[in-house]
Amino acid sequence: MTFNDDSQLSGGRVKRRGRTAAVGGGALGVGAIVVFLIAQFTGVDLSGVLGDGSGVTTIQQGGDTVDAAPECRTGRDANASVECRMEGAAESLDAYWSAEAPKLGASYTRPDFYLFQDSTDTGCGTASSATGPFYCPPDRALYVDTSFYDELQSRYGSSDGPLAQMYVVAHEWGHHVQQLQGTFADTDRSGTGATSGSVRVELQADCYAGAWVGDAANTEDANGQTFFEPITRSQIDDALSAASAVGDDSIQRRATGSVDPDSFTHGSSEQRQRWFLRGYQQGATSCDTLSVPGSAL
């Protein structure tokens, strides 16, 4: 997606964390695109997984917070830099869900959003770059190491387009909406398999991401200017590329040469694309992955 150059960013939605002191082990947050698959393929124990300032700030190794990118002020900035793009996506997502979440029965509050490098401490434990993007329910916060976007392209074969990057953010933001809805508390996410609760939760977050994309060209900044230019089909293809790249079957095939649906935790590439498109075409109220029969997933 392309931001309108003249749209205004108010700042304060995204913070940046630099390196933190190394801490061994630790639980990682729910919603990481690859976190459960790390457990499957490396044997790492992830049993503990849980499911406004001005501009972008950074936390240095000592824990101090400083202003890192006060230049993130317009859509032109968001088109030019990934940090500003994250800020712009966050402001658009916040505007969208402020209006949409009440329709789903949720009282909306915005999540915190942290970019980090190498590793960071969270309410879900210590996360590293290998974790992938994730949402941490105790913090009510998203965590993204933007180097993941390079890996998404080089290792997982995704497009490197801006919408592929923002799809990742929108998916994790969808987990925040689920937290507000009580979905995490009400859904058994301990099992695996193609129709498991964990897969249903992840597919709903994909659908919520698609719903935001479908309305993104209509969300407005504080001055009434739309954040984005109209979405093109090639940009939708970027998001679908990212959804396909992180499907359980796609990752398993690359890692082991075979596919085991009984170990699915996020859904197949086809499912992730299909539910993203459902949200894009029909909106967030169409995203009921929790009560539909397994054959409908």
Automatic annotation (TrEMBL):
Top-level lineage group: Bacteria
Q: One Pfam annotation, family name?
A: Zn_peptidase
Keywords on record: Hydrolase, Membrane, Metalloprotease, Protease, Transmembrane, Transmembrane helix
- Name the residues that span the membrane: 21-41
Q: Any keyword Transmembrane?
A: yes
Example GO molecular function: metallopeptidase activity
**Principal location class:** membrane
The compartments listed are: Membrane
Keyword Protease in annotation: yes
**Region of interest (Disordered), ranges:** 251-270
What is the recorded membrane topology of this protein? Single-pass membrane protein
PANTHER family from the UniProt entry? INNER MEMBRANE PROTEIN (PTHR30168:SF0), PUTATIVE MEMBRANE PROTEIN YPFJ (PTHR30168)
Identification of the protein by name: Metalloprotease
